Amino acid sequence: MDRIPVVIVGAGPTGLTAALELSRLGVSVRLVDRAPRPSTESRALAVQARTLELLRVRGVGDSMLALGNKTGAATLYADGRTLGPIELHRMPSRFNFILMLAQSESERLLTEQLARQGVKVERGVEVTAVAESVDRAGVDVTLHSDGGTEEVVSASYVIAADGPHSTLRRALGVDFPGRTLPQRYVLADLHVDGELADDQVSIFLARRGFVATFPMGQGRFRLMATDPAGIVSGAGEPTVEQMQRLFARTVHIPVRLHTLNWSSRFRINSRHVRSLRSGRVFFGGDAAHVHSPAGGQGMNLGIQDMVNLAWKLAMVLDGRARPELLDTYDSERLPVIRRLIWFTEIGTRVFNSTNRFVHAARIRLAPRMLGRDRVQNAAASMFGQLSAGYRDRALAQGAGGIGPLRPGDRVADAGGLYDALDLGGLTLFAGEGAEPIVEVARGWDGVVSVRPWAGEPLREPGCWMLVRPDGYLAAAGGPGDAASLERWLERWFLRR
Ligand SMILES: Cc1cc2nc3c(=O)[nH]c(=O)nc-3n(C[C@H](O)[C@H](O)[C@H](O)COP(=O)(O)OP(=O)(O)OC[C@H]3O[C@@H](n4cnc5c(N)ncnc54)[C@H](O)[C@@H]3O)c2cc1C
């Protein structure tokens, strides 16, 4: 049986991104999804700055920007008063806003780019079992198609992007520890007539629950709310009338809700796997972590999981990197996931509380907190997933630094840097006087590309930086660091 390099299970945003990256890097993939057709539900709305930075240079970001609605602030209100805005426009990115775009549209754009790269999603194909192959050099994957046929294929690696109820997690006995929050939530995508701001997220806090509104453009909004009084009763999906009553109970702005496209009710699960890797299977997206939708982070986290994993997998598969590089997917992403779950849990607790002392405290404290620059800057970076990084992780050890930048830090997409990146390997940017470093790089053909770029971090003579395909700093230093760069490359990569 021929071995497929990578089988990707699930064609949601996570699986689509994995296929997009791997196929771009020349890796053959099979991407299967048990659903016969793509979902039309809008689900995740928020596309965050870091996702846009990464997807722009991968052929998808510009079309997302053309279709989405930009929001530069999230304003908090309570009992008819404005508490203040979270100034999202402070994000240190060229995309200093949250882009509102229905998940179905993001998936469509990813699928179209994937088709341009020659990969078609195999729909109506369910993975029912996975097992290590007899020679231990691969994974046997059982595929069950809608037509009733069963096929067992062998893959060198499998990416489990099969969502929150992951079949692969169960098949491999991987735990999904965490908790289910008691509160019930409702959401609806509909039209709003009235004076509701359409260029910002609005969060209306009341003693008994909250309503948040997300502008989708052209008068359409996503409404999300808690429903402690049980207004949305019964088993069916929330109706316009129920949402109108829920809205009027909490929000001081008179509006008319109509033309409902989609509504749903849900509870929040806060869980993650203990390891993102089980042998030759890598978990990503909702298969690996689920959490509160506070802050619109879930889909973005899954996309960025795959941008972290794909270049490592591609380099190991074609013999340019040592297999140990694959362990850094777990050691880099898991702390980011844990931090994000912690952040969304805090947000959820603050917004959910129906305790009158907590409500009084949030009304009193919010304006003070939002008046502080440090709070505003930290919140904007956190929302945009711009402060996440891999400093101090294994791959960053012994790799130097440049100015305030340390290996594992995000390198900003400034001055055309991302357009100069080699998205298939490491890119060396070297200033005047860094010839010894360029010489080292020449010995690593296929692993390191030397590209011209002259931005802020390279102002000091002899300075250089090595940037990963996912836009994080790999290594950096001065002209005297040739030997340590050589050692660092030897530890993780292989000469051709
Ligand atoms: C009601 C709702 C509202 C949400 N709102 C937001 C939001 O505002 N912001 C945000 O960031 N996130 C939000 N999310 C979360 C967001 O939708 C997820 O984080 C995102 O979809 C995760 O993408 P994924 O590709 O990892 O998984 P999924 O999108 O779940 O995709 C998994 C895919 O795997 C397929 N699959 C499953 N099992 C198998 C199998 N055995 N074989 C083959 N295929 C299989 C499924 O058919 C599916 O297509 C929301 C989710 C819901 C349900």
TrEMBL record:
Domain FAD-binding: from-to ranges: 4-341
Keywords, ordered alphabetically: FAD, Flavoprotein
MF annotations from Gene Ontology: FAD binding; oxidoreductase activity, acting on paired donors, with incorporation or reduction of molecular oxygen, NAD(P)H as one donor, and incorporation of one atom of oxygen
Flavoprotein is among the record's keywords: yes
Pfam families in UniProt: FAD_binding_3, Rng_hyd_C
Required cofactor(s): FAD
InterPro entries for this protein: FAD-bd, FAD/NAD-bd_sf, RIFMO-like
PANTHER family the record matches: BINDING MONOOXYGENASE, PUTATIVE (JCVI)-RELATED, TRK SYSTEM POTASSIUM UPTAKE PROTEIN
Name of the featured protein: 2-polyprenyl-6-methoxyphenol hydroxylase-like oxidoreductase
Source organism (scientific name): Mycolicibacterium chubuense (strain NBB4)
